């Protein structure tokens, strides 16, 4: 399952997990895990960006402030690429480990926002795109993350446009309006 930022991937993933008891593997969760649990990764990132990205309340624990890191990587494409090159191999390894653990499951959902950008399609037998209008994507992102329009723009434009992802996907789940209107679409595909 892929889609743009704030298109509804996580919400639909939670629905599938709760209603169908299906294993959900989430790239964003693996990324957060690497930023909190992997000391080598944390040290590498802090060495590159300095104390400005360390959480002010937890300076001794070297907790990375994701918002501060986001401000850097979404304003500088080269920095985003650097971070992705650091994290994607770790995320890919975590997917492979978890897929091995769940190899007897008939269905496993992988939520990978950067599925095409990271060339992770080989992990999937079918690609579902969670789609919403660009206007709704902006509205959701600004509300969810407390961003202004310019900050949201940088994040949305850092990903392959949803219209391009539509062409590359096997199935499209329209999540433009109310989330619960997407559930029947999910049921049909499952």
Indicate the structural class.
mainly alpha
Unreliable spans are none
Strand order of the largest sheet: 1-4-5
Strand content: 5-15%
- How many beta-strand elements? 5
Radius of gyration: 17 Å
**Helix and strand succession?**
EHEHHHHEEHHHEH
Largest sheet: 3 strands, parallel
The helix content is 40-55%
Could you explain the architecture of this structure?
The chain is mostly helical and 190 residues long. Helix content is 54%, strand content 8%. The chain has helices at residues 9-20, 27-37, 39-49, 66-73, 77-101, 134-145, 149-157, 162-168, 183-189, and strands spanning 2-3, 24-26, 109-111, 128-131, 171-174. The strands form two sheets. The protein has a three-stranded parallel beta sheet with strand order 1-4-5, with helices on both faces. Helix 2 packs across helix 5 and helix 6 (134-145) crosses helix 7. It is globular, with a radius of gyration of 17 Å. The model has no long low-confidence stretch (mean pLDDT 92).
Features:
single chain; 190 residues; mainly alpha; 3-stranded parallel beta sheet; 9 helices; 5 strands; 54% helix; 8% strand; globular
Question: What are the SSEs and their pairings?
Answer:
Layout: E1 2-3, H1 9-20, E2 24-26, H2 27-37, H3 39-49, H4 66-73, H5 77-101, E3 109-111, E4 128-131, H6 134-145, H7 149-157, H8 162-168, E5 171-174, H9 183-189
Helix pairs in contact: 2-5, 6-7
Please give a quick description of this structure.
The chain is mostly helical. It has helices at 9-20, 27-37, 39-49, 66-73, 77-101, 134-145, 149-157, 162-168, 183-189; strands at residues 2-3, 24-26, 109-111, 128-131, 171-174. Helix 2 packs across helix 5 (77-101) and helix 6 (134-145) crosses helix 7 (149-157).
């Amino acid at each position: 399952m892929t889609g743009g930022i704030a298109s509804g991937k996580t919400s639909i993933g939670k629905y599938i997990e709760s209603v169908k008891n299906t294993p959900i593997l989430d790239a964003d969760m693996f990324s957060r895990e690497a930023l909190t649990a992997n000391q080598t990764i944390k040290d590498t990132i802090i060495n590159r960006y300095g104390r400005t990205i360390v959480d002010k309340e937890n300076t001794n624990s070297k907790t990375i402030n994701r918002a501060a890191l986001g401000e850097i990587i979404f304003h500088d494409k080269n920095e985003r690429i650097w971070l992705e090159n650091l994290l994607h191999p770790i995320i890919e390894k975590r997917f492979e480990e978890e897929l091995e653990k769940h190899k007897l499951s008939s269905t496993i959902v992988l939520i990978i926002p950067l599925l095409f950008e990271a060339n992770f399609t080989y992990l999937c037998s079918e690609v579902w795109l969670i789609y919403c209008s660009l206007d709704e994507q902006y509205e959701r992102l600004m509300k969810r993350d407390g961003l202004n329009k310019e900050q949201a723009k940088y994040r949305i434009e850092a990903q392959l446009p949803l219209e391009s992802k539509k062409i590359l996907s096997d199935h499209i789940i329209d999540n433009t309006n109310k989330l619960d209107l997407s559930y029947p679409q999910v049921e049909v595909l499952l």
